[in-house]
Specification:
Number of helices: 15
Number of domains: 2
Radius of gyration: 36 Å
Number of strands: 6
CATH superfamily of the largest domain: endopeptidase domain like (from Nostoc punctiforme)
Helix content: 40-55%
Structural class: alpha+beta
Shape: elongated
């Protein structure tokens, strides 16, 4: 740079330097590198699975209350409706009964049939049976599955019916039947009287149901549906199936719909009907009269209703299902094994039930010659079993239920273990890619 020759040029140079603030020369900037896009990381709650587990446990705890949604209230229960006629005479109810009526029964205390129903529904009535004839002015009733294993004609079935509340055991007269012997009962009658044709169709459809097996699967399934499935207001029709396995209430409701074309309870499928549903609002039946054998029995029943047992029972059930859900999320393989065992035994019962229905459609000579199905297992039932009434039941349990349940449990455990490993491997791989970029 050439030196200034005059004082003026020297002053201009100094002022120019001051104006620039005596800035030091900057180093040349390096070109910026394009930023790399970071892969999306999984949220912590998905990595840990805690929120998912919490959601599963919460859903399990609240599930038992779903069945209360849309459920109709009891309007024909003697505990809450003081206008229902009451009698202390069993004979009065027997003489009032007509073919097509239904008898609902209960008893004091708890038992394997009553307890599961009463705790969830809040009703004491747990058994239903239809009145099939009024012989000698006395109403006679018969229960579904009561003649299972003993094929009879329609006339023989009608003659096997017993007086209401008599306690006569159709199959074993020397040992009274608890179900037919209950005298705490209520007599229900169709709101719209059945025509002679409908009455005949009702009885005709019910007769085969006395000879089909009691369906534990239907009983358990209906109980869970009553607990877990919300009810609606839409009328649900359910075509009748004469050879289907029944419980006491579904046999009554299926035969009624077969005769009239209408369900017993509009908001619930016929095959899901429980005995106490006949007492609910909208039921096709209404009470004629009822009987409690002692005032104490009625008062005890009212206490049960007042403490709102359905809410308390569902809350307790919710705690239990939440505990099971927690255990399943912590030990899924064990839960898979249990589910596999239950599913396999349930499938076995379905196969046996289908085999029985097929057998029931064959001639009586075939029925007598083949008392058990599948017949290939008959020999296994007798292996190592002492002779006597208990031998066939023990034999079937050891040679059928145990191996089938064990195989299902092993399969369920293995399948769940495989799925669990696949999920863990996927989660670990995805997390490593997200964290390492």
């Amino acid at each position: 740079m050439p030196l200034p020759k005059t004082a003026s040029e020297i002053a201009d140079a100094l002022f120019s330097k001051l104006a620039q603030g005596f800035q030091e020369p900057q180093e040349p900037q390096q070109p910026q590198q394009p930023q790399q896009q970071q892969p999306t990381k999984l949220p912590d709650w998905l990595n840990s699975g805690n929120a998912v587990k919490g959601g599963i446990i919460g859903a399990a705890a609240s599930a038992p209350f779903l069945g209360m949604i849309g459920e109709k209230k009891f309007v024909h229960d003697p505990r809450t409706n003081p206008h229902i006629p009451r009698t202390n005479s069993l004979e009065e109810i027997q003489r009032a009964a007509q073919p097509g009526d239904v008898v609902l029964t209960t008893r004091g205390g708890m038992n394997p049939y009553k307890t599961p129903q009463s705790l969830i529904t809040g009703s004491d009535y747990f058994h239903a049976e239809p009145v099939v004839h009024n012989k000698g002015g006395i109403g006679h009733a018969i229960t579904s599955a009561s003649l299972y294993g003993t094929p009879k004609s329609t006339q023989e079935v009608m003659e096997s019916a017993v007086p209401i509340g008599s306690g006569i055991n159709i199959v074993d007269p020397e040992h009274p039947s608890a179900l037919t012997g209950e005298d705490n009962l209520i007599l229900m009658r169709p709101k719209t009287p059945l025509t002679p044709e409908q009455q005949a169709k009702y009885i005709e459809d019910f007769i085969p149901r006395t000879q089909t097996p009691y369906s534990s699967e239907t009983a358990i399934g209906n109980w869970f549906k009553n607990v877990l499935v919300p009810k609606g207001n839409k009328v649900v029709h359910d075509p009748s199936c004469a050879n289907a396995g029944d419980i006491c209430s579904t046999a009554v409701s299926r035969s009624y719909e077969a005769a009239t074309g209408n369900p017993v309870v509009p908001h619930k499928p016929t095959h899901e009907t429980m005995p106490s549903d006949l007492l609910r609002e909208g039921s096709a039946f209404e009470p004629v009269m009822y009987r409690f054998n002692t005032p104490e029995a009625l008062e005890a029943s009212k206490v049960v209703q007042k403490i709102h047992t359905p809410i308390a029972a569902r809350a307790a059930l919710g705690l239990g299902t939440a505990g099971l859900a927690y255990g399943a999320t912590e030990h899924p393989e064990v839960a898979g094994g249990v589910a596999g065992g239950l599913a396999s035994t349930n499938a076995m019962r379905k196969v046996m039930e289908l085999a029985h229905r097929e057998k029931m459609n064959r001639p009586a000579a075939y029925f007598k010659a083949n008392s058990q199905l599948p017949s290939g297992w008959n020999m296994l039932d007798e292996i190592g079993m002492p002779k006597g009434k208990v031998a066939p039941a023990v034999g079937k349990f050891l040679t059928r239920t145990v191996p089938v349940a064990a195989a299902g449990a092993v399969g369920g455990y293995a399948l769940t273990h495989k799925i669990h490993n696949m999920i863990n491997n996927y989660r670990a791989t995805h997390t490593d890619h997200a964290n390492n970029g």
